[in-house]
Every structure is written in structure tokens, then in C-alpha cells.
Amino acid sequence: MINFEVVEFIRKQTQAGVGQDKIKSDLISNGWTSDDISEAFAATARPTMPRPPIAVTKESSGKRIAMFVVLFVLIVLGGGGAFAYKTYYKDYIAQKEKDEIRKSNYTATPPAAALKPVEKAPQNESPDELWSTFDKVTLALKNEDVASYNLYSYEPIPKDQEPQFTMFASFMYEAYSKINKADFVNKWEDDKQTIYLTNPIRQDDVNFYSYRKAGVMFIKHDGLWKVLNITNKGTSHTKKNTNSTVAQIDLNLQAMMLDTDKDGLTDMNETCSGTSQGDKSCVKTDPNKRDTDGDGWWDGIEAEMK
């Protein structure tokens, strides 16, 4: 099955002028198989659908439905609901978590410290009320109810794109309905933004050591709490051809998911390191400062608003 992370990495590296041999070498060193790489290169040769400009304006409110259209094409070409599940929750070009394993002498922050939530700011909304908003979005997707979806989702669907929304609502509903609220034990919030996160979940298979964690972002907009985005991010490392111990790999995989300032972006996202290095669209922020530009919105929240 086509892996979207590999496809997007190849596209960005190709746009930056990197040759195929170098791209293949980098992917292999990061644990991707030759089959993954071959399928991804084949996928990059297929035509992609254009997206509207990204901006927080009424004119850009169709960004999410444009993503649905691209998602559908990729599902038809690549085949499989699992692919839809990996990519439903974000503009189809998302920042990638996959990165090369750091050298064995790297000193990582202990995972326990990395996962410790910050103190909650006082607010009137309870977790049940925020999850109620999430449930309303989920129900709107199930019923293909555009009006309700627009009321409880940060990015509404414009009238002229409602037919496309009804085509993809079922894919979205399948993914939303699989969210297990009890897993979201880390809660970072203030009076206008909230992030719920799971702890990293170990998901090894026969070829890779892997971790994943999911998140749900809420934002107060027009006086109502709305769902901004849901995420499902991960890191992995091949079990083959490595001199690192399992303990070293485990520690470094968790370090790759470290979010020091608890703003919804990993430290590697904020420093544009790893596979984001050389990506001209990556904007650096301060991994030790939750609100780098001081405008009241956390860096991770602000990244999803754009």
C-alpha cells in the first residue's frame, strides 16, 4: 500500500533538486522498505489535484473540502481505507514526524518529563462539553449534515462545495468514530484553545519499532468551542541493520515526539530538523516558547489555523 509520508517526502526532495538515488538512500536509512519507496515514486508520477490558497479568510474556507477531494483521488489510486485514516485529519501536506535516528551519544529528555501536562488555566468549559462538540461534528459527518458541521467545525464548507462534502463525509466519519476519548490523558488548555493528547503508544511490527500518538485540538471561535483538527503522528525505526540497542532506539523514538513547550508541535517540527530540513515551507518557531510570536495563540494551534 502506498505510504503517504514517503510520497510527500519524495515530492519535496524532488522539488528541492535532490536526485532519486539520494532520496532512496535517505529513505532506506530511515527504515523504509524498497517496496514502500518504489510505490511512492510511482505515486509521485500521478497527477494531483490543485488546492486553493491557504489563508484564514472566507475565501479559504473551502480548504478542507479541497483536501477531501485530493484524499478521495489518493484513496482510489492507492486503495484502502487505512490510508484515508492516516490522512483524514489534516491538510494532505502535513508536517512529517519521521526522522533519522539521532546518534547513540544523544542525550534525550526522559519520556516521563516529556509527557507531563502543564497546569490547566481556569475556564468554564468542562472536558465533557468539549467532547460534546466533537460528538456533534462526528454526528454531522454521519448524517452528512453540512449545517451542523459548519457550526461546530473551525473551517466551514461553502455552499457551492456541499456536494463534494457529502461524498467524503463517510470517510471522515469512519475515522472520527474510532477515537477513544479515554486514551486522551494529557490536556493542555486555556480560555480559547485546548489540546487533548494520548501518550505515545507502542506499535511495533515484524520490521519496525514504532510509536504513535493522537491529538484533538479545539478552538474558541465566534463565541463557540469548535473542533480545529485531529492528529495521528508517529515515529519508527527499522529493526534491520542497526547498531543501536532496543533501549537506545526506544528512548530516541520518544525524543522525536518530544514537545518541550506543550504547544502541539514537536521540537523537531519547530526547528525544521530531520526530514523537514531543506523544506522551504517549514517555518521555524521556538521549541521552548509556547507562543513564539506573542499573539495569544500557541504555535501548534496557530499552524492549524493557517
State the main characteristics:
alpha+beta; 12 helices; single chain
Topology:
Elements: H1 4-15, H2 20-29, H3 34-44, H4 63-78, H5 81-87, H6 111-114, H7 127-142, H8 146-152, H9 162-176, E1 186-189, E2 193-197, E3 201-202, E4 208-221, E5 224-238, H10 246-256, H11 267-271, H12 299-305
Antiparallel strand pairs: 1-2, 2-4, 3-4, 4-5
Provide a descriptive summary of the structure in words:
The protein has helices at 4-15, 20-29, 34-44, 63-78, 81-87, 111-114, 127-142, 146-152, 162-176, 246-256, 267-271, 299-305, and strands at residues 186-189, 193-197, 201-202, 208-221, 224-238. With 306 residues, it is of the alpha+beta class. Strands 1, 2, 3, 4 and 5 form a 5-stranded antiparallel β-sheet that branches. A hairpin with a 2-residue loop joins strand 4 and strand 5. The longest helix has 16 residues, at 63-78.
Discrete helix count: 12
Overall average residue pLDDT: 76
Low-pLDDT windows of residues: 47-61, 68-124
Structural class: alpha+beta
Beta strand count: 5
N- to C-terminal separation? 30 Å
Major beta-sheet overview: 5 strands, antiparallel
> What share of the residues does DSSP label as strand, in percent?
5-15%
